From TrEMBL:
<keyword id="KW-0808">Transferase</keyword>
<keyword id="KW-0479">Metal-binding</keyword>
<dbReference type="InterPro" id="IPR051272">
    <property type="entry name" value="RIO-type_Ser/Thr_kinase"/>
</dbReference>
<comment type="similarity">
    <text>Belongs to the protein kinase superfamily. RIO-type Ser/Thr kinase family.</text>
</comment>
<protein>
    <recommendedName>
        <fullName>non-specific serine/threonine protein kinase</fullName>
        <ecNumber>2.7.11.1</ecNumber>
    </recommendedName>
</protein>
<keyword id="KW-0418">Kinase</keyword>
<dbReference type="InterPro" id="IPR000687">
    <property type="entry name" value="RIO_kinase"/>
</dbReference>
<dbReference type="Pfam" id="PF01163">
    <property type="entry name" value="RIO1"/>
</dbReference>
<dbReference type="InterPro" id="IPR000719">
    <property type="entry name" value="Prot_kinase_dom"/>
</dbReference>
<dbReference type="GO" id="GO:0005524">
    <property type="term" value="F:ATP binding"/>
</dbReference>
<dbReference type="GO" id="GO:0004674">
    <property type="term" value="F:protein serine/threonine kinase activity"/>
</dbReference>
<dbReference type="GO" id="GO:0046872">
    <property type="term" value="F:metal ion binding"/>
</dbReference>
<keyword id="KW-0723">Serine/threonine-protein kinase</keyword>
<feature type="domain" description="Protein kinase">
    <location>
        <begin position="74"/>
        <end position="216"/>
    </location>
</feature>
<keyword id="KW-0547">Nucleotide-binding</keyword>
<dbReference type="InterPro" id="IPR018934">
    <property type="entry name" value="RIO_dom"/>
</dbReference>
<keyword id="KW-0067">ATP-binding</keyword>
Amino acid sequence: MGEFDEESEDDIEDFIDEEERKFDTNIDQLEKKAIDYNRIRKIDQSKKRAVIESVFDERTIFHLNRLIVNGPLERVEGVISAGKEANVYLAYDTNGKEVAIKIYKIDSNTSRWMRNYIVGDPRFKKIPHNVSKTIFLWASKEFKNLKRAYKVGLSVPEPIHVRNNILIMEYIGFESIPAPLLKDIRKPKDPLQLFSEILNFIKELYNKAKLVHGDL
């Protein structure tokens, strides 16, 4: 999504810099036993191990553990979906409610794609050259865009929290079974009605939230 109004990124830059300092200060002192791996439930099957390890680098585990120790998370379960830029996981908050966690991959390919995507966008006064900072900035903007769309009553997951490359949002599904993606609905009951709803969403996204989806 893209915003029409220009927003300052200084607060996000300050936040990212502070998180970098906290990480650099604390990671050397953090013993492995301080990370509660039992509550970050990695699936042992070899076919899923690569999917998990593609986003669970040392830094992400460190910050994910902080979200578990300090809230709002209670535990992380299995993979909902895996993509080129991010993986989505099922998790539970401290009240036992299902939530979705989107974890962006920290790699140069993802960062390069994001940089190319936002070059020329007036929202971004400063585009970091650092790979991690670029992805942290992207996650923060995704959170803010979701928050804006949700606030005006659009049908989007409620954004809950963002930290670095970790975005926590409302889980759309029932009893650990995620709702199907639009592309996976083979035979909608009323195709014309569904098409009308999509067009109306696009219109309201523009008129109410002042956003345009980047894939349109």
